[in-house]
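stuck on whats below:

***
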Amino acid sequence: MNNIVALTTDDIKQIAHLARIGLDEAAIEPLRDDLTTVLSLVEQLNAIDTAGVEPMAHPGNAELRLRDDVVSEENRRDALQAPAPDVEQGYFLVPRVIE
């Protein structure tokens, strides 16, 4: 766990180059510190012994409660489209804005 990866300024510049991210010089130092912290946390997670721990699809092992897909409201499309200036086959017609 004491194998903390210390990134250098050149490492940060290389990562930014590979990710196609433009960085100014002032942003490199704080980013280096943040990424070093993240890598340290990942090392801590890797150090945990997970042998014998069964993988889970969800941390709470929750079961999905599904309901039947039934219509719960009446079809009011005609009434809702009545005030529209133009309707065709159940669709609102709008003016073309792109030629």
Summary: Residues 9-46 form one domain. The chain is about 35% helix and 5% strand.
